[in-house]
Amino acid sequence: MKVLVTGGAGFLGQRLARALLARGALKSEDGKRQPITELVLLDVERPADFGDSRVRTEVGDIAERSVLKRVIDDKTDAIFHLAAIVSGQAEADFDLGMRINLDASRLLLETCRQRGHRPRVVFTSSVAVYGGDLPDVVQNDTALNPQSSYGTQKAIAELLLNDYTRRGFVGGRVLRLPTISVRPGKPNAAASSFASGIIREPLNGEEAICPVTGSTRLWLLSPRKAIECLIAGCELDAAALGNQRVVNLPGISVSVDEMIAALREVAGERVVERIEWKPDPRVETIVGSWPARWDTSRAEHLGLSGDHTFTAVICNYIEDENVHVV
Amino acid sequence: MKVLVTGGAGFLGQRLARALLARGALKSEDGKRQPITELVLLDVERPADFGDSRVRTEVGDIAERSVLKRVIDDKTDAIFHLAAIVSGQAEADFDLGMRINLDASRLLLETCRQRGHRPRVVFTSSVAVYGGDLPDVVQNDTALNPQSSYGTQKAIAELLLNDYTRRGFVGGRVLRLPTISVRPGKPNAAASSFASGIIREPLNGEEAICPVTGSTRLWLLSPRKAIECLIAGCELDAAALGNQRVVNLPGISVSVDEMIAALREVAGERVVERIEWKPDPRVETIVGSWPARWDTSRAEHLGLSGDHTFTAVICNYIEDENVHVV
Q1: Nearest to B143 among A143, A152, A160 (CB)
Q2: A222 vs B286, residue with greater confidence
């Protein structure tokens, strides 16, 4: 089985690649486990290949037709389409967001359609497709009402993926991710970057800025669980999904104050004191438009599970990233 | 004031043009009535110009950038974007539907953005953006769940129009139209074509085929009221609309049996006998996925009104089209 990961140099892409290589196999559409013979990692910068002979790294612009033709052939069984321009950047650079989040996603689906063998496409969407006056718990049939260009582009790609699936061009699965926390690495241009930064930086002995008030509620999923859900999502039985290919992944609803209390519990007051409060209305507006909780019954029915407590999420981050708390 | 109508040779486009010319003026964004000095009608075939010196007809492919640049300049105050590939045709020819219903709509918004003067864009959407398990009365915040490529393309264009409006590139208004009935002219490739055909053809002494069962419920708006709503929609106060630019226009919910009973009431049994029942599962599937009624409170609050009875709709059709019932 040949597998493609777009955004393969990114944090989720690299972690997914390692998980797929360790697993060595994926269930195919007929439910049988097939060995992964080739794992193609595509990104704008060269992804790590882990010295594994099954990995083929490709550098290219995903909005270019020729690049997609090079990485998707009629042996490609499963595609994890993670490449994206994050929320803050898509708001700052409208054209770039449209080009990568919309045009490239459509071109990927078109390339699959032209190949004609109906590969599975796992697409990651976001809390940002929701907005406006939301119920306390967002339901699977709550209307999409994005309040950012990023959310708009993700919502459009969801609609395309559903229609390309309905028409039999691809076998689509849209997984709406909660905000991922705790991400390792550096802050990025996502409006939600702080949701990792306020935990990660203090644990690593650095100052962090919190741009929202402590009562702001977030809907979070750990990287560990996100990777498990991506793989399980790819293996989901098409019949169980039916024509509606969007699944809201399970999250935990926590306020920023509760996140910080969990950090205090794990690492102590000295670490928490490295957080500086500095409200940024731009971030508050975008993040405040997202749902703080959604109904997870469909995901659970399909066998997809999330985290239990944010304290455990912090502990997993420390373990997974070999953090030495200072 | 300069006004553009795309799909200007179509049935709604021509009727809208006549209504605008008769009115002679439109309210501008500041609420003041401004005379219409130029009315540009664009279509793939030459629209009628009614011998009116204010009308400029343009023939061209709306998915071509150069065509849009020719018809939208920085004097264009209001655009009625009616050009579309209808539901049945968009399902039969996927690429054509994507090109006209999605790409051309986006190109139109991009052309406005590049001009930079934030023209008003009135976009017509459809019942076809809804689908799946629907409540008896669809609400403004019922999730979009299109079951056809046409509905998908309309839903995507709605999302784009909302975001282009939020960013200040255009002043968008999306009017979701019920199925229009009774349309004059010939049957077309819309899945809902029969909703006019079963009234129009019998009144004109011709046989008509009804492809759905009598209990099928439709959500209908007459051409007369549709034109009134398009003009009123353009003139709506931006502040009253806020960031959510989609308005579900009022309709009447009638079953096919009730439509035929109204026809019998107006024209007699002899006319009704010209309808032949011939179920077409393809049409039943598409039409059956559409809502039979939606909440109209927002439209009414904004001052947009629909029809009262389907009997009146038939009488208006006979009057407007000078039909001599045979």
Answers
A1: A143
A2: A222
CA distance B236 to B28: 10
Contact residues, chain B, for A92 at CB < 8 Å = none
Q: Is the CATH number of domain B194-216+253-320 3.90.25.10?
A: yes
Q: Give yes or no for residue B29 having a pLDDT over 90.
A: no
Q: Sort A160 into a burial class: Cβ within 10 Å, 0-12 / 13-18 / 19+.
A: buried
Whether B317 is catalytic is: no
Q: Which of residues 139-168 of A touch B (CB under 8 A)?
A: 140-147, 149, 152, 155-156, 159-160, 162-163, 166-167
Options 3.40.50.720, 3.40.50.300, 3.30.750.24, 3.30.2350.10; CATH for B2-178+222-250 is 3.40.50.720
Domains B2-178+222-250 and B194-216+253-320 share a fold: no
The helix (H) or strand (E) run that includes residue A97 is helix A94-97
Chain B residues with CB under 8 Å of A163 CB are 146, 149, 152
Q: Please tell me the distance in Å from B143's CA to the nearest CA on chain A.
A: 4
Mutation for A interface: B103, B163, B243, most A CBs within 10 A = B163
- Cβ atoms of A310 and A262 within 8 Å: the answer is yes
Q: Rounded to whole angstroms, how far apart are CA atoms B103 and B125?
A: 15
Summarised one tens digit per residue, pLDDT across range A124-176 is 999 999 998 889 899 878 999 999 999 999 999 999 999 999 999 999 999 99
Best residue of A101, A105, A112, A156 to probe chain B, by most B CBs closer than 10 Å: A156
Measured CA to CA, the distance from residue A28 to residue A13 in angstroms comes to 20
Average pLDDT of chain A, as a whole number = 95
Q: Contacts of residue A244 in chain B, CB cutoff 8 Å? A: 132, 145
For A163, the closest chain B residue by CA position comes to: B149
Q: How many CA atoms lie within 13 A of B316 on its CB side?
A: 16
Nearest residue on chain B to A106, judged by CA atoms?
B98
Radius of gyration of chain A (CA): 19
Mutate to test the interface with A, among B130, B144, B148, B156 (most CBs of A within 10 A): B156
- Domain segments of chain B as ranges: 2-178+222-250, 194-216+253-320
Summarize the confidence of residues B123-127 as an average pLDDT: 95
pLDDT value at residue A30: 83
Sign of the C-alpha dihedral computed for residues A27, A28, A33 and A38 taken in this order = negative
Per-residue pLDDT tens for A209-260? 999 999 999 999 999 999 999 999 999 999 999 888 999 999 999 999 999 9
Task: Name the residue of chain A whose CA is nearest to B164's CA.
Answer: A149
The Cα of B300 is separated from the nearest Cα of chain A by a number of Å equal to 20
User: How far apart, in whole angstroms, are the C-alpha atoms of residue A268 and residue A261?
Assistant: 9
Residue A122 · residue A80 · CB < 8 Å:
yes
Full DSSP string of B131-166: -SS--SSB-TTBPP--SSHHHHHHHHHHHHHHHHHH
Provide the pLDDT confidence category of residue B289 given band limits of 50, 70 and 90. Answer: confident
Out of B133, B146, B159, closest to residue A155 by CB: B159
Contacting residues of B for A172, CB less than 8 Å apart: none
10 Å CB burial of residue A120 (0-12, 13-18, 19+) is buried
